[in-house]
Amino acid sequence: MNSSILKNFIVFEGLDGCGKSSQVKILANHLENLNKKVAFSCEPTDGPIGRMVRDVLQHRIKTTPKALALLYSADREDHLFNAHHGIFYSTQEGRFEISDRYFYSSLAYQSVNVDYDYVKEINSFPSPEILIYIDVPVDICLKRIDKRGEEKELFEKKEFLVKVEKNFKFAIQNCNPATKVLVVDGTKTIAEIAKEIEHFIDEHYGFI
Ligand SMILES: Nc1ncnc2c1ncn2[C@@H]1O[C@H](COP(=O)(O)OP(=O)(O)O)[C@@H](O)[C@H]1O
Ligand SMILES: Cc1cn([C@H]2C[C@H](O)[C@@H](COP(=O)(O)OP(=O)(O)O)O2)c(=O)[nH]c1=O
C-alpha cells in the first residue's frame, strides 16, 4: 500500500470512449494559457512496454489476464520513474502532468478477471493529487467507439464494460482520501464538461 500523493499530477479516468483524451488536451491548453508548465501523456504509454500492451489489446499477441495486469503495472512503473521521461521527476520540476488513465483503470479492468487485491498489490504507486472521472453510461460509450470505425479492442464489449463501470465506482469510493476527486457527467457537451473541470482545477490550485 502506497499512501503518498504526487503533487501536480492530474489523472483522467473513465470507460473507453467517455471523452478522456478530448478533455486532457483542453485542460492542458487551459493550464498553458495560465502560463503553467504542463505536459500530458497516457497509459498504456507509447514506450516499449505500452506497445506490448497494445499488441495484446489489438489481438496481435495473446497472454493471460494476470500477465496483462503485470504488463500494465510495469508500463506504469516506467511511466512514473523512467530516468529520462518519468512523470514523477517532471512533477518535481514543477510541471503539471496530466495522464489519460492510471492505476484506477487497472483496478477497474484487470480485476474483472484477476483478484482485486492482487491487482491492488501490484499497483502500489503514488496517488495523483487530482482524479477526474468522466461518467458516461456504457451504451453511449459503445456508440462513440462504433463511430470511430476502428476494429474493436479487447475490452470494448458491453458485458465487460458493465463490470468495469461497477469496479471503477468501487475503486473511486475507496481511493486515497487525500486525492481530490471530481466526477463529471460526461453526457454533457465537450465545452460544458471542460468548463466544469477548469473551474474545479482553478479553485483547487487557487488560480481564481
Ligand atoms: N462530451 C461529449 N459528447 C459527445 N461526444 C464526445 C464527447 N466527448 C468526446 N466525444 C467524442 O467521443 C469520441 C471518444 O472521445 P475521446 O476523447 O477519444 O474518448 P476516450 O479518450 O475516453 O476514448 C470522439 O469521437 C469524441 O469526439
Ligand atoms: C491503463 C489501463 C488501460 N486499460 C485498458 C482500457 C482500454 O480498454 C485500453 C486502452 O486504453 P485507452 O487507449 O485509454 O482506450 P480508450 O481511448 O478507448 O479509452 O486499455 C486497462 O485495462 N488497464 C489499465 O491499467
From TrEMBL:
ATP binds at G14, L15, D16, G17, C18, G19, K20, S21. The keyword Transferase applies. Keywords: ATP-binding, Kinase, Nucleotide biosynthesis, Nucleotide-binding, Transferase. Gene3D superfamilies: P-loop containing nucleotide triphosphate hydrolases. Its EC number is 2.7.4.9. The keyword Kinase applies. One of its GO terms (cellular component) is cytoplasm. Pfam families: Thymidylate_kin. Belongs to the thymidylate kinase family. This is Thymidylate kinase. It comes from Bullifex porci. The gene is tmk.
